[in-house]
Every structure is written in C-alpha cells, then in structure tokens.
Design brief:
alpha/beta, Rossmann fold, Dihydrodipicolinate Reductase, domain 2, 6-stranded parallel sheet, 5-stranded mixed sheet, binds NADP nicotinamide-adenine-dinucleotide phosphate
C-alpha cells in the first residue's frame, strides 16, 4: 500500500514513521507550502497513491476532501474541527464512490471509552444524584477546543442520561441544571487525555483515557487507511472498530 500525506506536522510525521515501520510506502507528502488552497492535490500528483491521509488544519481540510474526491482516491481524515460540515462534502464523496474514513480520535482505546461511557451513563440514568462532566487536556498548539472527542463524549452522555439537554463549553456564571460541563485545558505538549466523571454528594466515579504517545493515533490512522482502500462509502473510525469487534473484515 502507498499513502500520500496531506499535512506534515506532528501527526503527519508520526504517521510516516509508523507507516515505514509497517512496510507501507509513503509519498507524495503535501505541506502548506506545496499545497496552498489544496492546489497540489490532482489526479496527476496522486497517481499510484492508494489512500490519502489528511492531518492538516480545519481551515484547509474541506478543500482537500473535494480535491481528493475529484481525483477519486480513498481518503482518511484525522483533522478535527470541521465535522459539523460533513454534510457539505458528503455528496462529493458519494459521487466519487471512494472509501472515506474520518474521526476525531484514531485511538482504539478511545473508541472503547465511547462504548464504556455509553454503558455507564445508561446505568446512571436512574441515579440523578450523579452529575456528569467531561474534561480534556491537550498541548498548547491544538487549534480547536473542546476537542471533537470531548464533544462526542458529551453527546453520548446527553443521549444515554436523558435528563440533560445541552453541553456547556463556555461558562458565564453558574452552570444551568440541564447542562453538562465540557472543559478544555491547553498547556505544554501533552498529546491528549479525556476524562468522564460522575459526581455525587459523597462519591465520584471517573474513567480516563490517556494518550502516552502520538503513535496511538498513527496506528489507528493506518488501520483506517487499509479499510478505506478496500471499502467504498463514508465511515467514522468508530464504525470501523465496531465492525472489527463484531468479527468483520478490517
Ligand atoms: N483524529 C485523530 O486521532 C487526531 C489525533 C491528533 C491530531 N488530530 C488533528 O489533526 C490535525 C493535525 O494535528 P497536528 O498535531 O499534526 O498539527 P500540526 O503539527 O499543526 O500539523 C498540521 C500541519 O498541516 C499543515 N497544513 C496546513 N495547511 C495545509 C495544506 N493546505 N496542505 C498541506 N498541509 C497543510 C501545516 O503546515 P504549516 O505549519 O506550514 O501551516 C502543519 O504542518 C489537527 O486538526 C488535530 O486536531 C487528530
């Protein structure tokens, strides 16, 4: 398999290292210099590429998706901060009949955390004394906040608990009763921690996922690339892992 990298920052470089160790060919590599306005991505430059892997910026990624779909190459998108605009590019991807995998977090453990939190919240549905919250930590360079993963965790809590109506990502004064606090910390170089808690008057339950190294994302991104190469359609990384857990082909 040969992958093209769109974005050659911290994640692009880590994916390159992981790919080469796994015997996957890498190249071409597109940077903001060689790919201004996505103009570097053409059928010509992507000839011989099996999958394009995008870890760039929320501002650039929609153009990249359109250009890669026009060149009819499968694609993996790890870039965050654009998922509310998926419907804008969905018809373009569908017309191109390519495989497309996206997700806010390519760690396998995070996908399992989503499942554990859904189950935990369904148990807490009957226990209104337990008040839920989400906290995430990332390095200071991360552009969006809260993380897409924290928002997804919050969404799962809303769906499963029933008694809360919205996420509160910015506090002005006291939190409304029906809100779930989703807090973000930005400092240093930490690759990512997500914590979900349930706090009652005399006890607290917390579940935490810690990324100790960016390699965790890179391994998942390569997993997604293999999947996108062999499966047409639009899939979240969660769906890819679910298929695997159900014994499907990944
Ligand atoms: N899904 C996941 O599992 C996961 C995990 C980690 C990170 N992420 C997300 O992935 C994205 C990248 O993260 P990162 O830590 O690698 O950030 P980063 O180190 O800032 O790298 C982003 C790179 O994209 C480049 N870029 C900007 N515009 C481009 C364009 N038009 N074509 C090609 N490259 C372009 C930037 O180049 P310049 O510096 O020259 O502008 C930069 O090198 C972020 O959205 C982050 O939130 C997702």
């Amino acid at each position: 398999m040969r992958i093209a990298l769109i974005g050659y920052g911290q994640m692009g470089r880590e994916i390159e290292r992981a790919a080469l160790e796994a015997g996957i060919e890498v190249g071409p590599i597109f940077t903001s210099r060689t790919n201004s306005e996505g103009r570097g991505l053409t059928a010509e430059t992507l000839r011989g590429v099996d999958v394009c892997v995008d870890f760039s910026t929320p501002q650039a990624v929609l153009t990249h998706i359109r250009r890669v779909a026009e060149a009819r190459r499968p694609m993996v998108v790890g870039t965050t901060g654009w998922f509310d605009r998926l419907n804008e590019v969905r018809p373009v991807i569908e017309r191109a009949e390519i495989g497309f995998v996206y997700g806010p977090n390519f760690c396998v453990g995070i996908t399992l955390l989503f499942r554990l939190v859904a189950y935990g919240a369904s148990l807490f549905r009957q226990l209104p004394d337990f008040d839920p919250y989400v906290v995430e930590w990332h390095h200071w360079r991360k552009a969006d906040h809260p993380s897409g993963t924290a928002l997804r965790l919050g969404q799962i809590l809303l769906e499963q608990l029933g008694r809360k109506t919205h996420l509160v990502t910015r506090l002005e004064g006291r939190i409304p009763q029906a809100g779930i606090s989703v807090a973000a910390i930005r400092a240093g170089s930490h690759p990512g921690t997500h914590l979900v808690g349930f706090d009652a008057p005399f006890e607290t339950l917390e579940i935490t996922h810690v990324v100790r190294h960016r390699r965790a994302f890179a391994i998942g991104a390569l997993w997604a690339a293999r999947f996108a190469k062999d499966h047409k359609g639009i899939f979240s990384f969660e769906e890819v892992i679910d298929r695997f857990l159900r014994g499907g082909d990944v």
